[in-house]
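Thread: Newbie trying to understand structure tokens

Hi all, I'm a second-year student working on a class project, and my supervisor (Dr. K.) asked me to get a predicted structure for one chain before our next meeting. I've only ever worked with sequences, so writing a 3D structure as a token string is new to me. If someone could post the tokens and maybe explain what I'm looking at, I'd be very grateful. Here's the chain:
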Amino acid sequence: MIGILSAIKQIFSDRPAPLPKTESSAERQERHRKEALGFAKQKHREISQKQREQDAWHQRYGKQQAAVLNQLSGAEFETYLAGLFRQLGYQVNLTPTTGDYGADLLLSKQGERVAVQAKCYTGSVGVSAVQEALSGMAYYQCQSAWVVTTGNYTNNAIELANKSNVRLFDHTELGKLIKQLEDTSNAR
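---
Reply by user tm_fold:
Sure, no problem. This is what the structure looks like when written as tokens:
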């Protein structure tokens, strides 16, 4: 009897393990979808983190550049911006120092004209700068208006700019332009 039991155990132990259950097509698709979703979420987290780091760097860089630029007079800041935009490929005209109808610079590139109001401020730029840019845009028959500052903007200025499609450049955006120019110059 023991011999028979041993023989039966031997037969079952020599037998290959049962084959694993194969995935159905729907199960395979579901597993693939979950893996792809997990991969996409991980990449999104990584890209978001890199973007936050880059934004923080631009903000610090912009503040550093603004601190240097804040030492300029208003007319010197306008001249600096004229040179910056020229090097970025714009045709630039400075308007008269007084009686400029709200635009300190007139930019042209690829058929688009831009009226620019420049504010070399350490604090917040108010709604009047946006109004001046809009006035300059109308007077000089431009397609768009920008306000460029070394500071930042009040909530009212931001609200009016959003409603009237005026582009606002604060110290961070100005830093990005300066960095863009530096990168272009270094690539040459």
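A couple of things are worth pointing out once you decode it. The longest strand covers residues 112-119. The longest helix spans residues 25-69. Feel free to ask follow-ups in this thread.
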